[in-house]
Amino acid sequence: MKIYSFSGKGNREINEDYYANIEFCEHSSLHVIADGIGGYSYGEVAAQTAVSTIVNYLSEKYQVPDIEKNIRESLLQANEQIRIKQKELHSKLGATIAGVYINREIAYAFWLGDVQIFHFRNQELLFVSENHSLINEMKKNGVVSSKDIERFGNIVTKSLSGVVFEEEIKISPLKLECNDCIFLCSDGLYRRIDPRLLISQTNSELDEKMKAHDASVEDNYTLIRLIM
């Protein structure tokens, strides 16, 4: 597998995105991006806390066979650590997150919020994660206007924010084949660039493209590209 990662702060003072790529063994790895929730304080703390907790938990449990249970438990642990940070800092903080746990020919995709996961095969989009957002909830109930999108477009309905989860966290197993491409992107990237345009670019071409966007992108932006 070939891995490319990049994270930029765009026109923000600090980068509140955080990511990790961890190889557990020859056939098992974890790739994850967290994005500190806008409007809250300490976004960078929330994102790093979320990723570090998930990485640490799954690093200890990767030999335990129930992968989906392990992922859910790692997210519960991350949510609890966010709650603890809130008490320590006397402030609201939280993060949206998305990741894939790859075990042999299966990628277990998980997400909360609006960091997205894309799965391509031969340039064809096979899977995209559905954002947990107020706009998506509104679309299910009727027509959404451009004013609605402008007003509510950045509001997420699920995240790691210390609040007890009301539903079981969804995990989507994705069957992988050779040369499949998986993207994980924070919203600062996919709202500006169509990921399918980045599938065939070399790492150096991607670096050049990502750095060129740093001055023009309003938000932090992070990309992980995996080619099987």
Shape by Cα distribution: globular
The major pleated sheet works out as:
5 strands, antiparallel
- CATH level-two architecture: 4-Layer Sandwich
The N- and C-terminal alpha carbons lie at a distance of 5 Å
Q: Output the CATH topology.
A: Phosphatase 2c, domain 1
SSE layout and pairings?
Layout: E1 2-8, E2 17-25, E3 28-36, H1 43-61, H2 67-89, E4 95-103, E5 106-112, E6 116-121, E7 124-128, H3 134-140, H4 146-152, E8 171-175, E9 181-185, H5 187-190, H6 203-212, E10 221-227
What would you note in describing this structure?
With 228 residues, the chain is of the alpha+beta class. It has one domain: Phosphatase 2c, domain 1, CATH 3.60.40.10. The chain is built from six helices and ten strands; from the N terminus they run E-E-E-H-H-E-E-E-E-H-H-E-E-H-H-E. The strands form two sheets. The protein has a five-stranded antiparallel sheet. A five-stranded antiparallel sheet has the order 2-3-4-5-8, covered by helices on one side. It starts with a strand and ends with a strand.
What's a concise summary of this model?
This protein is an alpha+beta fold and 228 residues long. The chain is 31% helix and 30% strand.
Protein traits:
228 residues; 5-stranded antiparallel beta sheet; Phosphatase 2c, domain 1; alpha+beta
